[in-house]
Amino acid sequence: MSRAEELAAKQLEAYNAQNIDEFVAQYSDDIIVMDFPSNEITLEGKDAFRQRYHTLFMNNPNQHAELKARIVKGNVVIDHELVTGRSSGNDVEAIAIYETNDQHITKVWFVK
After folding, report:
1. Residue 112 pLDDT more than 90?
2. Who contacts 56 (Cβ-Cβ below 8 Å, separation ≥6)?
3. Cα–Cα nearest to 8, from 106, 112, 93
4. Is the pLDDT score of 91 beyond 90?
């Protein structure tokens, strides 16, 4: 397993366990989250990232992301997930693109 795939797997596992510390640990301090294809920045920095996901976990204690497919190319991982168990009762199909370095996920795009 490549380092990029390892980071993607670890963050997904922590997401499903709602382990905010382990989840956030997979991301760089200067993490940038963007919409794809617009590249509009929706979140920047680890503190804002932690806050958003802490709130998400608190509001959706039963959510679970099932990995449907994963593509790995060098330092980029593309995950197709189905998120269920949300408080709204609505399932969410998500496609996330992760760019990594040797230590962390540095950028994330969510396909809109």
Report:
1. no
2. 63
3. 106
4. yes
Q: Measuring CA to CA, which residue among 29, 27, 48, 25 is closest to residue 100?
A: 27
Determine the 3-state secondary structure of 45 from DSSP. coil
Q: What is the three-class DSSP state of 39?
A: coil
Which phi and psi angles does 91 have, rounded to 5°?
-75, 150
CATH code where residue 24 lies: 3.10.450.50
Q: What is the domain extent for residue 75?
A: 3-111
Decide if 49 contacts 31 (C-beta within 8 A).
yes
* Nearest-angstrom CA–CA distance, 98 and 104: 10
pLDDT interval class at 56 (50, 70, 90): very high
Number of domains in the chain: 1
* Rounded-to-integer distance, Cα 84 and Cα 105, Å: 24
